[in-house]
Amino acid sequence: MVTNKITPQPAALGRGGQQAVNPELAINQADPWRSLPVRVKRLSIEAPSVFTVELAFCDTHNQSNYRFAPGQFNMLYVPGVGEAAISIAGRSSTGALLHTIRAVGSVTQAIETAGVGFPLGLRGPFGTAWPLEMLAGTNPPGDLVVASGGIGIAPLRAVVETIVHERSNFGRVSVLVGARTSADLLYRHDHDQWRQSNIDVQLTVDRADENWQGQVGVVTLLIDRLTLPSPATTQVMTCGPEVMMRYVAKSAMARGIPAENIWVTLERNMNCAIGLCGHCQLGPEFICKDGPVFPYQRVARWLSVHDF
Amino acid sequence: MQFKIAKTELDRLVAALQCQGYTVLGPRIEDSAIVYAEVNSRADLPQGYRDSQEPGKYRVRPAEHDNYFEFNLGPHSWKQFLFPPKVTVATGVLSSTGWAFSTPQSPPPKYAFLGVRACELAAIAIQDRVFLQGPYVDPIYQARREAVLIIAVNCTVAAATCFCTSMHTGPTCTTGFDLALTELDDCFVVDVGSPRGTAILEKLNVELARAQEIEQAGALQQRAVDQIEKRLDTTNVHDLLLNSLDHPHWDEVAQRCLSCTNCTMVCPTCFCSSVAEVADLSGENVVRQRQWDSCFNLDFSYTAGGTVRNDRRSRFRQWLTHKLASWQDQFETSGCVGCGRCITWCPVGIDLTEEVDALRSQPSSDRMLPIVESPQSGPLHRTCQVRPAESGVSSGDE
Fold it and tell me: CB under 8 Å, gap of 24 or more: what pairs does B325-330 form?
């Protein structure tokens, strides 16, 4: 029996010069098919058919050694059913890994119905991370606009969590959250904490019901009205439907934010997560290993091609 | 330095390899095709047979020679032994403490490949880049690849579907083998490619090849070059394809393509796969089996938000642009070695060299112009014709 060692990954440079960030891999690179046993510690409903699971490793060694960077994803495994690629939404106060999941397929529905205590497998983390170092590494720290649509807030929640913990490393931060209806807005219980950390949180919905008195309309409208004192040094991180991200990029550029400051995260069918199965290709990119986080400029050309 | 061995030495070669623990795999005739399977002596080889190939058609017939390797390629490639069509990647057992997961740790099979052609050596080198260059290495491919011994054979004839000269992969083997044979009428001229090759050769009755035999081997290799008529114009093919993503020709191909996946199954470099869950009745013992998959399958690009490539147009475009263009970005090599299998085994005879010509004949800058079919429209016009079904058994009958 091979133990899952922590194997540091040599710094791999993506073609666009973006560093593939795997700070410390819980997964053994020589044994990438091996899942680690985890259990569902808590399951909370976020919105209709959307829930968040807290996962803890069965092995305390794995629990204390697992590291991820915001933007990366795990392959969650229901033995006998299959795997699903789920981005890491952060950690709970007890250190459990948070994954926010929409129950749409056999794997995600199996996790939802099984509930607390359910034993699962996990491989990960995989993929590239949001470039937080572009913000925290400058003096003064850079400004950030986070723009999400629907469940696209999940991989960005881990970004906000990091900012809350290391607030002084970041400049102005706006989190723009779009959803279909107010019932589809995720992490509403987190918003007060974010605001207390001097983060500008703005919400908008496509369709307002009688419970909603906030903004109505697409998330790009919030970008159009945003206060942006220094657009040239502001980064944009966006996740949502591809068409939404293209319009977020367009709106951001119209506000003077350089194209190279815009970052997107993409979704494709993930099967192996290690760049070997071919499913997740977008032109020259393997979303699983070259992404899922990309500089917008690197993938904009391919996103504009229908059915590519 | 080149050597020669008598043809009867093939038996000693197979025995020597078996003695060292190798399972020897080589060409055999099964189900009217030359396939790769276990061979135990030269009697198993397709002596005196020749294949004939054209788009959508493959035949094996007795020929007027007694040679063992005077044919080209069948539907099999060596890919199936290094990247198996179905293989266990992981297992899980449920107990009261949760799942215990493991990955196969058994030693890989030890294969000796007999009769690997130059284009197939190139294909193995390409899959080495796919599976071994990282950041993640496929442990199953790696273990099998490290164990394999390769005895190559230089082609002395070419099929009508061969275009290795366009892809600069053949027909003569230059690297990636332990031994390479060129078959003359009465002997094999042998090139040594590695110390392991030398060690095997020492087990056989070997002589130095005479100048006349070396010259004859060269002439036979040149004969194969001269017989190759098919060309793939690779000039700037990367940009040509990726700048033609909205080209109307993709719609035209989609009317012929059946999305049957044959081209990807016979391709020696295609590497797409999916993992299937296989559980026993209790659900407490689970095996994860990786199987070959294809970008031509509808569910290949399925996501929660919908299927990305819904029609044959987008799936054929994905295959061709990946094979000839984006593969270069990913692995710094073309994904095509010019073996021609995808042409032969396409049930409707789609020929990628003609499809590239068609895209080239009307560059994407002109793509908004209506396509006018005229006798002068050249390759585009030619490929617009759907080939009539061949009578008799075709490669697509399965």
Answer: B325/B237, B325/B238, B325/B239, B325/B240, B325/B241, B325/B242, B326/A281, B326/A283, B326/A284, B326/B242, B328/B238, B329/A15, B329/A283, B329/A284, B329/B238, B330/A284, B330/A286
Closest to B79 in 3D by CA, of B352, B348, B332, B337: B337
Q: Is A88 exposed, middle or buried (0-12, 13-18, 19+ CB in 10 A)?
A: buried
Judged by a CB distance cut-off of 8 A, whether residue B376 touches chain A is no
Element (H, E) at A303: helix A296-303
* ipTM value > 0.90: no
Shortest CA distance from B242: residue in chain A = A283
pLDDT number for residue B364:
66
The amino acid at A178: G
Which of the residues A276, A290, A304, A306 would you substitute to probe the B interface, choosing the one with the greatest number of B C-beta atoms within 10 Å?
A: A276
Q: Please give the structure tokens belonging to residue A30.
A: 């020589």
Contact between A239 and A266 under an 8 Å Cβ cutoff? The reply is: no
Q: For residue range A118-157, list pLDDT tens digits in order.
A: 999 999 999 999 999 889 888 899 999 999 999 999 999 9
- First CA to last CA distance, chain A: 42
Q: Are B74 and B115 in contact (CB under 8 A)?
A: no
Mean pLDDT of B356-364: 88
On the question of pLDDT at B367 being above 50, the answer is no
Q: What is the pLDDT of residue A138?
A: 85
pLDDT in tens, A9-61: 333 333 333 444 444 555 666 789 999 999 999 999 999 999 999 999 999 99
DSSP assignment letter at B355 = H
Query: What is the rounded distance in angstroms from the CA atom of residue A114 to the CA atom of residue A208?
Result: 33
Number of Cβ pairs closer than 8 Å across A and B?
142
Summarised one tens digit per residue, pLDDT across range B14-67 is: 999 999 999 999 999 999 999 999 999 999 999 999 999 999 999 999 999 999
Q: Is B139 on the interface with A (CB under 8 A)?
A: yes
Q: Structure pTM?
A: 0.90
Q: What distance in Å separates the CA atoms of residue A53 and residue A58, rounded to the nearest whole number?
A: 15
Extract long-range pairs of B12-19: CB within 8 Å, 24+ residues apart.
Answer: B12/B203, B12/B204, B12/B205, B13/B114, B13/B151, B13/B200, B13/B203, B13/B204, B14/B39, B14/B40, B14/B41, B14/B42, B14/B114, B16/B200, B16/B203, B16/B204, B17/B112, B17/B149, B17/B200
- Contact flag A268-B322 (C-beta cutoff 8 Å): no
Question: CB–CB of B130 and A276 under 8 A?
Answer: yes
| Chain B touched by A112 (CB under 8 Å) | no
8 Å CB contact of A279 and B272: yes
Average pLDDT, chain B: 91
Beta carbons of A33 and B288 less than 8 Å apart: yes
pLDDT given at position B354: 97
Partners of B302 on chain A (C-beta within 8 Å) are 269
Residues 245-304 of A with CB under 8 A from B: 267-269, 271-272, 274-279, 281, 283-284, 286, 289
Locate the chain A residue with the closest alpha carbon to B96.
A119
Give residue A21's pLDDT: 45
**Mean model confidence pLDDT for chain A:** 90
Residue B306: pLDDT over 90 = no
Selected residue of B140, B303, B320 to mutate for chain A interface (largest A Cβ count, 10 A): B303
Q: How far off is chain A from B290, nearest CA to CA, in Å? A: 9
Give, to the nearest 10 degrees, the angle between helix B352-361 and helix B249-256.
Answer: 150
